[in-house]
Amino acid sequence: MAKDRDISMEEDIYSIELLHQGKYESWDFKDEAERDAFFSKVKDHFSGHELREKEEDVDDLRIVQLSATSLQIKSGIADQKVPYEWYDQDSFEDMLGFINKHYDH
After folding, report:
1. Which domain of life is it from (predicted)?
2. Which pLDDT score, from 0 to 100, does residue 81 have?
């Protein structure tokens, strides 16, 4: 299950977020490589469920957004990168269950 963040503002943050209809879950990782590997594992498992077209005017109630956040603060410059994928709304519970089952922290 997602953990609450207890991070000082001097630490880098590497996380995965799942958003759907106002629901937000987040999982933290020790480094970018570990987070990227898990992000890829989730994307691979749900391959074929993603929405191919990321339209600007899409109804956000109909999508699940899986994102990988890198907030790098230690370098002295707050640099944030957030790749993301959109999935059909019906994937939310399955994705949440998969991530919680395979997240090992």
Report:
1. Bacteria
2. 75
